[in-house]
Here is the input.
Amino acid sequence: MTALVLAVCNQKGGVGKTTTTFHLARAAITDGLRVLVVDADPQGDLTSVTVGEDSLIEGQVGLADVLSDRSDEHIRDVIVPGIWPGLDVVPTTGDALEGVNNELVIAGAGREQRLHTALADVIDDYDVVLIDCPPALNPLTINALTAARGAVVVTESRLFATNGLSRLLHTIDTVQTSYNQDLAIAGILINEHKQRTISGRTWKKEVDAVMADRQLPILDPPIPDRVAITDAEEASCGLDEWAGRDGQDLADLYTAHLHTIQGGLS
Ligand SMILES: Nc1ncnc2c1ncn2[C@@H]1O[C@H](COP(=O)(O)OP(=O)(O)O)[C@@H](O)[C@H]1O
Ligand SMILES: [Mg+2]
Here is the structure.
């Protein structure tokens, strides 16, 4: 059995890609799955929450060393254990990955496939691989989509109309046609949803209409705007480990979405 590879994407920053990757990873862990997360954002936000601070060293090797032509690091040599048993991480620290992105811009044939090729060597060791994408439709995102079976598109309802969803869907389409026939949209996840406000409800209706119109799989219900979601992530804690009933309910929501994604792609 080979792992289900998911790319969590949107070219806009701050919509919740890293947060979603983190909590979906936890959902997979609580399901007893073997999980690898790949930090494909040069900012390294996912690395800081999924790897204990003490586990990273100065000059840490990471995804950049796997993708760059200038380095011959094997993916097995950069994987570090994550904060939970069953979780492994391909980390990103420092500025190296931004440099590799620039290297990929001008690289020749096969540059889209580098992550896919690297992952092939470890994919049988995991059940789920989650790739946290950078906030750009750059070669790193293309590499993530080329390596993935499913794209999880994270967006906010209030940003839905303006956040370039069409461009993202077009990019997914291009990758599917040119580099990766297996790629499908695993789901559109509305994040930080304010169900209690009138504008929140209005947006949700609009989003639902567009989804139905384009026949896109929406992950319903949306993820609400809750401080526990941020606080748990920043404390490197699963929502199920977070105090309060709210935590377990939110954990269950991510688990439900993971199951929908798994079901839709099997
Ligand atoms: N559902 C949510 N409720 C409350 N805060 C959230 C939620 N999702 C994300 N956030 C917060 O919003 C900010 C941006 O999220 P992040 O995951 O870093 O976005 P991205 O990876 O797309 O740039 C973070 O501070 C995060 O903790
Ligand atoms: Mg991020």
